[in-house]
Amino acid sequence: MTNRANTRLNISAGLFSVTVAAVLVVAKLWALSATQALSVGASLADSALDLMVSLGGLAAMAYAARPPDEDHAFGHSSAEDLAALGQALFILVSACVIASAAAARLISGAASPLQNEGPGIAVMVLSIALTAALLMWQRSVARRTASRVVRADMLHYAGDLLPNIGAIIALWASASLGLGQIDSIVALGAAAMLAVGALGIGRGAWNALMDRAAPDSMVGGIAGIAARYPGVHGYHDLKTRTAGSRVFVNIHIELDGSQSLDEAHAIGAGLRRAIIAAYPEADVLVHKDPVGVRPHPEDPSKT
Fold it and tell me: Are residues 163 and 181 in the same domain?
């Protein structure tokens, strides 16, 4: 799949995410005013945060899709990692605020004064249905494009499902059993899930911003392609780094030094195409060395 096709898919997932978040913010605002449930308030805060970070993620994907220019020779894909890191920070702050409110209510022993539980449950069911539809599309897009922003968006929307179910349980328990404190317990659980998800998103984005190597499975796959490619007598200095949904690959291959430049170029170009066919997210640079060449003493030492 081409980069342009990947970009279209990523942006479609971003637009779907923004639309779902906007609808849910409006619906949950009404549900909160009707029920006064802290669990619904936690879900509303999460949806409002989803809307904000989804807008930021959509902008980041659009920026990351810009072609390389004079100041950004390797493109703009790291904007995706910056957006994902921002998402993680916002989600973590939201989790702390929700947990503090729920803990304060539990410590005070005050029961949640819930009301209009039926309409509130209907809004939560709508939220679950829309979120499930969004997750199905995001999962499909992330599998095809490997976008870190789409994956981050998918993770925190997946984290919305259990809190929404918990809010339904809290509203039902209040209406049927008079157990208002369940609302605060559900809100604490939702906050814990948000925090765990935020830390995972943040760690992945930070690793990418620090030029972390590609996963071992990908590095091993590239090495296998190079080792088996016709005309390649060996390879060395295989290096990778991730940036957004792109993986930059540098590899030195050893070729027959007596062949023509055209022949050597054809082998290198063919190997590059083979690697990209197996890993469409890869940006590959192939350096060609004659078999048995020794480093020049004035060459910079490899690290």
Answer: yes
**Residues, the chain:** 303
**Number of compact structural domains in the chain:** 2
Single-letter code of the amino acid located at 123: V
Query: Of 130, 201, 124, 156, which Cα lies nearest the Cα of 54?
Result: 156
Choose the most confident range, by mean pLDDT, from 71-80, 189-198, 230-239.
Answer: 230-239
Report residue 161's pLDDT band, with 50, 70 and 90 as the boundaries: confident
From 155, 181, 209, the end of a domain falls on 209
Cβ atoms of 123 and 165 within 8 Å: the answer is no
Q: For residues 110 and 240, state if they share a domain.
A: no
CA atoms within 13 A on the CB side of 303: 1
Domain range spanning residue 285?
A: 216-290
Q: Locate 48 and state its tokens.
A: 């409002």
Q: Is the CB of residue 272 less than 8 Å from the CB of residue 286? A: yes
* pLDDT of amino acid 229: 95
Of 230, 163, 150, the residue nearest 195 (C-alpha): 163
Which phi and psi angles does 250 have, rounded to 5°? -120, 130
Who wins on pLDDT, 234 or 154?
234
